[in-house]
Design a protein that fits this description.
alpha/beta; four-stranded mixed beta sheet; globular; 39% helix; four-stranded parallel beta sheet; 313 residues; Hypothetical Protein Tm841, Chain: A,domain 3
Length: 313
């Protein structure tokens, strides 16, 4: 049976191309480049690590590469929307959080222009601000595919996503706070003091899609242990079941350790293991690990703390 709608996502969903193909998700790539390098330095499309391996990308950053990211161009969005229109199947595009990227606004601008070109037609193409990114976006988009396959049409899927995004719980840490300073606007003094004390900021997504500090831990191992505590306290099984997404930026041993600990708590757990893609990786650097799962509505939380910064263009 043909689906009632198609799904697109920007490349910040951190799928592999094999996963995207299996789920029937069209990917619109972000891009990265090193400014001032005659040959572009570390540069390319965020093509889900097809043209460069995870290890080679992050090793280049370890050696000093400082790539900058850019959202898909208006032409790229326009081409994707024209293909969706020509297919005759209503389509939903999932975008990285507008709180850390201009990608969502760029997609909306391109879609508005496309609709102006077809004033007498109903354009059933929709853009969703996930208010998430990376591993958390993986979890949301994968479940959106299941909802589509269960029979939701495009309009119902948008309504579902606009609620479901608040039930995605995310905690992640980076190898050092200086990575946040390089990727955004965390003051240098804060990153230096934090690293000197070996304090690990455990981050999450605020309701508006910006980054916030959920908790802190003294040392990386204790930080990863806090993941487990947060998971035990906040996860729910209904309606999405035993699933968690554990991502890593070229630190697979940490990812497997987190996964193993979670499975000890819940042997039935299905663990997704996305690699943190180039778009997010360019801003957080190697060593980031994350844990994302379905939990209670985050709008009920009282903790809202903001970090200015990791914002992709």
């Amino acid at each position: 049976m043909a689906p009632k709608c198609n799904i697109m996502s920007d490349s910040c969903c951190d799928f592999t191309q094999k996963q995207a193909d299996a789920l029937g998700v069209k990917i619109i790539p972000f891009h990265y480049v090193e400014a001032g390098k005659p040959d572009g330095g570390l540069h390319g499309d965020d093509d889900l690590f097809q043209s460069i391996s995870v290890h080679d990308f992050y090793n280049a950053i370890r050696r000093g590469a400082t790539p900058m990211t850019s959202q898909p161009s208006q032409l790229e969005y326009d081409q994707a929307f024209r293909e969706a229109y020509d297919s005759g199947v209503p389509t939903v595009l999932f975008c990285i959080s507008s709180g850390i990227s201009g990608g969502y606004n760029g997609a909306v601008t391109a879609l508005d222009r496309f609709k102006e070109e077809h004033p007498d037609e109903e354009i059933r193409i929709y853009v969703v601000d996930s208010l998430l990114a990376s591993t958390a976006q993986t979890l949301l988009v994968e479940e959106a595919c299941h909802q589509r396959d269960a029979g939701l049409n495009a309009e119902a899927l948008v309504l579902w996503a606009n609620e479901a995004r608040y039930h995605v719980r995310t905690v992640f840490l980076v190898d050092n706070l200086d990575a946040l300073h390089r990727g955004g606007r965390l003051p240098k003094a804060v990153s230096v003091v934090g690293d000197a004390l070996d304090v690990k900021a455990i981050l999450h997504f605020n309701l508006d899609g910006t980054l916030g500090i959920r908790m802190v831990a003294r040392g990386r191992k204790k930080g990863m242990h806090r993941f487990m505590e947060y998971f035990e306290k906040n996860r729910v099984l209904e309606p999405y079941g035993h699933v968690v997404a554990v991502g890593d930026a070229d630190c697979p041993d940490d990812g497997y350790q987190i996964s193993s600990t979670l499975r000890e708590f819940d042997p039935e757990l299905r663990v997704l293991r996305p690699a943190i893609g180039p778009t997010i990786g360019a801003h957080v650097g190697p060593g980031m690990c994350s844990c994302c799962f379905w939990g209670e509505d985050r709008r009920k939380d009282k903790l809202i703390t903001h970090v200015k910064g990791i914002r992709t263009k």
